[in-house]
Amino acid sequence: MAKEHEGRAVGIDLGTTYSCVAVWLDQHQRVEIIHNDQGNRTTPSFVAFNNEQRLMVMLLRINLLLTLKTLSLVNFYFYYLLLHVYAKRLTGRKFSDLVVQRDILLWPFKVISGVNDKPMITVNYKGQEKHFCAEEISSMLLTKMREVAEAYLGSPVKNAVVTVPAYFNDSQRKATIDAGTIAGLNVIRIINEPTAAAIAYGLDKRNDCDGNRNIFVFDLGGGTFDVSILTIKGDLFEVKATAGNTHLGGEDFDNRMVNYFVEELKKKNKVDIKQNPKSLRRLRTACERAKRILSFAFVTTVEVDALFMGIDFSSSITRAKFEELNMDFFNECMNIVDTCLRDSKIYKSNIDDIVLVGGSSRIPKVQELLLEFFKGKELFMGINPDEAVAYGAAVQAAILSEGFKNAPNLVLRDVTPLSLGIATYKENIMSVVIPRNTSIPVKKTNGYFTLYDNQCIVDFPVYEGERPRATDNNLLGSFRLHCLPAPRGHPLEACFSIDENGILTVTAREISTGNMNAITITNDKERLSMFDIEKMIKEAAKYHVEDMQFLRRAKVMCALDSCVYNMKNALKKNNVNLILTPQEIEKINNAITVAMNLLDKNNKEKEIDVLEGHLEDLESMSKHLISKANNFIFLG
Ligand code: ADP
Ligand code: MG
To answer: pTM for the full model?
Structure first.
């Protein structure tokens, strides 16, 4: 394979809670996870500011930082924040919207509304109030990871493969590339976290399997949950399906425990610490620690001295209680596992390996549910769940960059997580061009027709999502095609292409003239949050019945519209008087008027049965007209 990128590229797992950087050691033909200046192999995804300087948190323990009053700490949850940046912009929510405001409350830093209502993080830096957008903050983390790699390699690092949750939409992928650019890194490829983990796992395995090997990757991290099913065949790593929830992870489990103790404090000490962010933060840190302990112990204590109003908090929690508090989250994980398997069309008995990734996959209950689901099939925990993603990214980086002569040979084929298409203008139907879980890169073309005679402008609204009604999905962008005047039904085509990074470009063309227009969906377009994506998929299932009704209605409306158009044209012909009696003409005209009333925009709630009944009448009139016309050689 021709190597496109100069120098040695590294692989970076830019996690919600921890980040990790790795490099392929060509001489030893293995991956090295690079330790930071603290000697740790993973680095907290935190950025802190004080009046004098910006500190990367690994310089100090987080706990220590939390007690340093001089520091205004930016506890930056990268994906979390992106989620809110996009959620607000995409669903047209204002900054003051309750949903946005509620989440902001949980963050130990101020967020304000910036240009275009973009949330901006506010910090005091060098005596001034500074505002940063999500990309800027993540670029700080990427910079740190680049420096960690440079210190180890002893040379500048320009290129990197960066991983993202499989469920990131193309706007968020673009934002990640932008963050790399800000950090002085050329992001040569964006790959999905579970796919990267599968590479880490499958690299050795592929030698000792003849035929296909089906791998199931379960990645439960701090703020995101991703599952993917891959098939390895020789050098080909092919993703079959992916699913996830980008708002589900360890932090949610921590929150449940925090709330549990907040209630206990209310009862026992008659205080509500919810009003005090600092106390809440300290309790949360203690809960996170307790949660980890409960992964190997059955009971633990949570102690925070001088938590609130002089109260020294001390309490205990059992593993059983922790599981009870989070059981709905764990069940949600298993539902997603089930969806992914169904999408992949692979039976669970045909899964060869189950690979656990992400810190939260260490939770015993999660493992127990997985074991039960896969009927006792052994779970693979041999690779470090904190490092597997960066490991896979480093392998991919080695394959793509020229600095490595002995990089392994493997071809990665990933999928797109959401269906992409165009709203057919009049009936608002989602015309899917690329269905979800299609292998990328991919290029697909669909044909369309103009709706009116002499229609010179055609709009192409591009959507992502699983609902049949286009406007129930997320609008990615829209563009216009100018065409020459022509009768209705003038042919056009739209071409969707998704590159290796999952970024979409759409072009539309008037076939006769070759007139073209194109858009690349970028992050300055209004985009959907991951939260909304999940909501849409859930809604898609819930509203399936309603959707079917909508499709049935849209279909009959289209047919009726087309029938009216044809009959009106037929009635315009000179010789129609020779074919039909005046009574027949009047009957048809009446039927057309009724149909047009039914088609009227304001008549949306008309019963489908009524529409279908009238269509039947009109079609039989049309048949009658044609059969009569066939007896008259002049018609036409
Ligand atoms: P991300 O990829 O989202 O940055 P990680 O895979 O690094 O996340 O996982 C971090 C999460 O895993 C945190 O919520 C942390 O509390 C949780 N975690 C780490 N170790 C354990 C453990 N032993 N038991 C339970 N949760 C754990
Ligand atoms: Mg992760």
So the answer is: 0.74
